[in-house]
Amino acid sequence: MAATRLRRTFHYPSESDDEDAVEAGMDEQDQETLITSLSNRDTTSTRYYTYFLLLLPLSPTLLYVPHLFAFSTAIPSLAAIISLLASAYTLYFLPLPPVRPNIITLSSMDPTSPSKGKSIQRDAHGFKSSTPPSERRPVPYISEEVADMLAKYVVPINGALCILLALVELWQGREWREGMTIGGGYVPGFIMAIVMWARRELRVVDLGELERLRYRTKGS
Fold first, then answer.
1. Where in this protein does the record put region Disordered (predicted)?
2. pTM above 0.85?
3. In degrees, to the nearest 5, what angle opens at C-alpha 11 toward C-alphas 6 and 12?
């Protein structure tokens, strides 16, 4: 609003109202282009980082396979492979909901505003205040019921499995560096911790608040 007022205050006397309207329209188009560009860039970078980080749980999985053929390491190695695959599944198929940008508006400071504490999400008819849900990626070859069950229980079960492997490693009394090598019981828990941290950092930014501010400015 302030930029629009300055622009109208210091325009040349020869400019017409139609030119002001065209200029305002160009400003709105620039804003839409900027928001779209930021959204596409954030989504693209998040996807690339996700693909790169998938190597972290998937690469050790192949190295655990030879340990399956030894009687003494078969069960721990199978448990470690399941944990690593669960970490990869969580990272790719269960992204966290978008994070809301830290933008202070008049509506967010108004205790009677229905949009306080919520982010804005585009729908088919415009914009509305809502907290964006976590969008689970579709999982091939399994039913929706199984995918929903995995989304609910895969993280706590994986955490319990990592704790169990770590306790077995402690019970065996091996050195810490041995437990952090392939075949050790600390590797799945270490990788799961990194995956959960990366999953939080890879949340896309919800730009609906910027869009709402742009339409509010347009309406005023």
1. 113-137
2. no
3. 160
Residue 127 main-chain phi, psi, to 5 deg: -130, 145
pLDDT for 219 equals 55
Tell me the mean pLDDT in the region 168-177.
Answer: 87
Q: Which domain covers residue 84, as residue numbers?
A: 2-7+16-219
**SS3 for the chain, per residue?**
CHHHHHHHHCCCCCCCHHHHHHHHHHHHHHHHHHHHHHHHHHHHHHHHHHHHHCHHHHHHHHHHHHHHHCCCCHHHHHHHHHHHHHHHHHHHHCCCCCECCCCCCHHHHCCCCCCCCCCEEEECCEEEECCCCCCCCCCCCCCHHHHHHHHHHHHHHHHHHHHHHHHHHHHHCCCHHHHCCCCCCCHHHHHHHHHHHHHHHCCCECCHHHHHHHHHHHHC
When divided into structural domains, the chain yields a total of: 1
Specify the pairing of strand 120-123 against strand 126-129: antiparallel
Assess contact for 220 and 117: CB atoms under 8 A.
no
pLDDT at 204: 76
Q: pLDDT band for 109, please (50, 70, 90 cuts).
A: very low
What pLDDT does 129 receive?
Answer: 39
**Interatomic CA distance for residues 128 and 207, integer angstroms:** 13
Give the model confidence (pLDDT) of 177-205 as tens digits: 888 888 889 999 999 999 999 999 888 77
Contacts of 196 (CB under 8 A, 6+ apart): 90, 155
Structure tokens given for 6: 């300055």
